[in-house]
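Weekly structure sync, notes
Attendees: PL (lead), two postdocs, one rotation student
Agenda item 3: pending single-chain targets
PL asked that the sequence for the first pending target be pasted directly into the notes so everyone works from the same version. It is reproduced below exactly as submitted, 124 residues in total.
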Amino acid sequence: MIGHCLDGVPLEACGLLGGDPATGKATLCYPARNDAASARLYTVNPQDHLRAGRDAEARGLDLIGVFHSHTHTDAYPSPTDVAQAPDPAWHYVIVSLRDMAPVIRSFRIQDGNIAEEPVVLEGG
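Predicted structure, written out during the meeting:
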């Protein structure tokens, strides 16, 4: 996920997360193309979205979230991110590349309300 975001600089990069919706644990990362081709917003490519959904389903999993980078700002949802949040059950992960070390934060967004949730990275 971080590598994909770094590869996208100077534009925002994005992708989808597959996992178990009951636990909220993401076990798959699906890098996607940013159809917006912008440094300020992202649009997950529909073909990449479809492929990720099919792969997750074939593995008995669901798409449970989306990630994208902020190249020059904090890892916090922008007003555009909030307006584009399609599913209140999803996890919205933001990778900030503003500083030397990337910062990862995850949020739930429902009816315009932003709630941060813990991020736990497991080795594998």
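Discussion points:
- Residues 46-58 form the longest helix (13 residues).
- The mean pLDDT is 95.
Action: rotation student to compare against the earlier draft before next sync.
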